[in-house]
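haha ok so turns out i had the wrong file open the whole time. this is the CORRECT one, sorry everyone. sequence first:
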Amino acid sequence: MTISEIAKLAGVSRTTVSRVLSGSTFVSKNTRDRVLDIIKEKEYKPSIIAQSMRTNKTRTIGLVLADIENPFYSRVAKGVMDVVETKNYNVILCNSNNDIKSEARDIRTLIERGVDGLLLTTVELKMKTIENLIDRGFPFMLIDCKLDTPGVNYVVNDDYYGAKLATEYLIELGHKKIFFLGNRKLLSLRERFRGFKDTLEDHKIEGDTNFVSQKFINVYGIYDIDKIIKYLINREEKITAIFAGNDYLAIKSIKVINDNGLKVPGDISVIGYDNIEISCMVKVPLTTIRQPKYLLGKLAAEQLFEILENGSNKEIKRIILRPELIIRQSCKRMGNYKS
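then structure:
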């Protein structure tokens, strides 16, 4: 079935059928309904290539995930996909694997393939990459990456506030020897570390903020986590609590602590961040910070489509979501301490 055949059956021109397919308003309701009825009856599927040539749009969105194996990003992607499906668009998914060079390459490739817009969950975007997108007026949204540069749109979790929630909770339980576990090269973890450090300073507590954890941690490397937890357990100055930058680090830390003959929370309290699905299913249910992962993806996609449909990227769209503390069983009050 072709456009010409649809036009003949409907008693209209090919141009009229094309206008109906493109959503043009220059067609009467009766004519539009007649054409759409025939299209439905004949199960006509317009060529995506032909449509893109006619409208200069591919009806495709590029989604770059920082780590496809991380459950956090799978929920973000689900939020994106659900919106994209309602818009009858397609998604090209790329996994940068927490690598800045891969991230930049993925963005270039997606633009070359003609995507209409980009959704980016980033490790540490180079400003040159962002500036190129802004200069060419290319529609994009950052997800869980706060970058207050003119022309940048984002939907983020308030990681600074979330970190303060976690740290305040540990302090309320009487903990003062708290270690922040995470790769501070990651933008989101950088904000979490800042919230952690500022909260300790507010309470005049000297936390473990000077230790260079980069020596041991390479993003989410399991072997490196083993080394750093063993170091913390065996060093002379003991810690009483770990604030892990994400739930993966927290869950792995609990395993290593247990493997070395100690107990959580008996010997060391552990708090995570993200509230991934498995965090409540592990042997010691994890106290953590819940951030609305699905909503991050959903809102980012909705904002991107608003930009695409309005034909302008000038109005800055920035949404900040508030996280919440989820108390489970991985933290305990210090002996004889009352808040």
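The chain has twelve helices and eleven strands.
again sry for the mixup
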